[in-house]
Every structure is written in C-alpha cells, then in structure tokens.
Amino acid sequence: MLALCWWFVAVRESGGNTASRRSHLVSYTASVVTVQADANWAVKDGLTTGTARLALDDGRTLYISAATLGEILCTDLSTPNACVLLAEMLGDAPTWFALTPAAGDEPLSRLPLPPIVDMLNDGDDAVLENGWVVPLATPTKRECDSATPNLRDFIDRFGSNMEVMLDLAADEIDTVRCTAD
C-alpha cells in the first residue's frame, strides 16, 4: 500500500513522466540472454506497457510487469547478450530498469556509462549525466595523463570529457578515464 501511495504521488507531481524526473539507484546489473515479451511491450512516458520476462546471464529470471518505470535504449532484444539490464530493485522486483546496448570488453565484463556529474553518500555513489545513480568502487581508478588528487577533482576538471566503466560482476563503477586534457 505504501508503494502504491508513493507511486501515485510521484506520478501526480511529475505529470506522469517519473522516469525522466527522478534519479534511479542502479542496484543490480546483468547481461540479458533472452527477452520474452508481450507483443505490445514498450515504454511510453517512462512506464512499460505489457509485461516481459528476462533471462539473465547469472541464471536469474526477472519479470517486468506493466506500469514499471523504465527505459529501453537497446534495440536488439532478440540477440543473446546484446543488451545489459541496469535496475533499481525492491527485493526481487524492479522498481525501475534500463536496457542498454552491450558494449565494452569481450566477453562482456564492463560497460561504458555516461559521464559522472556528482557524487552522493560520502562518495559511495556516482550521479551520472543521465540521472542514474551507480555505486563507486573504493578506490575508483582514475586514468589520465594529468594527475588529480581525488575523484571529486577529476569530476570537476573533466566533466563530460570522461569515459566511465561499470564492472558488471561487482555492479559498480571501477574506472574513469579523461578523454581530453
């Protein structure tokens, strides 16, 4: 009941598009092996229409019900391991998810993410340019010809001129690289 009340207030305050107005804490990541979805499964105004069942590379099956907050950025849902799931979980259920194209190392162990714009929770979490909040490794490796004393200085100095890498096994950002000095 509490979750339903929160959802009603969030949707009412945002005019129906909560996915683009609220930060989402990525607490679970996995490569998507298969997607079984209703014919009308999509995301409209930040909410899913229809339902889907995702088989993941860690052996887990995740069900996404209708009206779940989400983003589908991956267009190849039929090829195994072509998409990566990032999700905000409440127990075993996603409260928000993003399906993003798999890119990075082969075999897939790391995923590039948008630049970091801020940090939360005493530097434990990164706020990405797109609003996602992702845990940071301790320490987070900084790769650049120009030395920076800490990650905060790196973020302030390089802003959108950085590559961010997510370690899919640890579900955290472990490396940032400057792309311009």
Structure overview:
The chain folds into two domains: 2-101, OB fold (Dihydrolipoamide Acetyltransferase, E2P), CATH 2.40.50; 110-178. It is built from two helices and 15 strands. The chain has helices spanning 2-14, 151-158, and strands at residues 24-25, 28-37, 42-44, 47-49, 52-56, 61-64, 69-72, 83-90, 93-101, 110-113, 116-120, 125-128, 132-143, 162-167, 172-178. Strands 1, 10, 11, 12, 13, 14 and 15 form a seven-stranded mixed β-sheet that branches. A six-stranded mixed β-sheet has the order 6-5-2-8-9-7, with no helix packed on it. The protein is elongated. Mean pLDDT is 88; it is low at 1-20.
Could you outline the blueprint of secondary structure elements for this entry?
Layout: H1 2-14, E1 24-25, E2 28-37, E3 42-44, E4 47-49, E5 52-56, E6 61-64, E7 69-72, E8 83-90, E9 93-101, E10 110-113, E11 116-120, E12 125-128, E13 132-143, H2 151-158, E14 162-167, E15 172-178
Parallel strand pairs: 1-13, 7-9, 13-15
Antiparallel strand pairs: 2-5, 2-8, 3-4, 5-6, 8-9, 10-14, 11-12, 12-13, 14-15
- End-to-end span in angstroms? 51 Å
Shape: elongated
Q: Roughly what percent helix?
A: 10-25%
Calculate Rg over CA atoms: 17 Å
Strand % is: over 45%
As residue ranges, the low-confidence spans are 1-20
Q: Helix segment count?
A: 2
Tell me what the CATH architecture of the largest domain is: Beta Barrel
Averaging pLDDT over every residue, what do you get?
Answer: 88
Q: Would you tell me which CATH topology of the largest domain applies?
A: OB fold (Dihydrolipoamide Acetyltransferase, E2P)
Largest sheet entry: 7 strands, mixed
Please state the structural category.
Answer: mainly beta
Question: How many structural domains does the protein architecture include?
Answer: 2
Total strands: 15
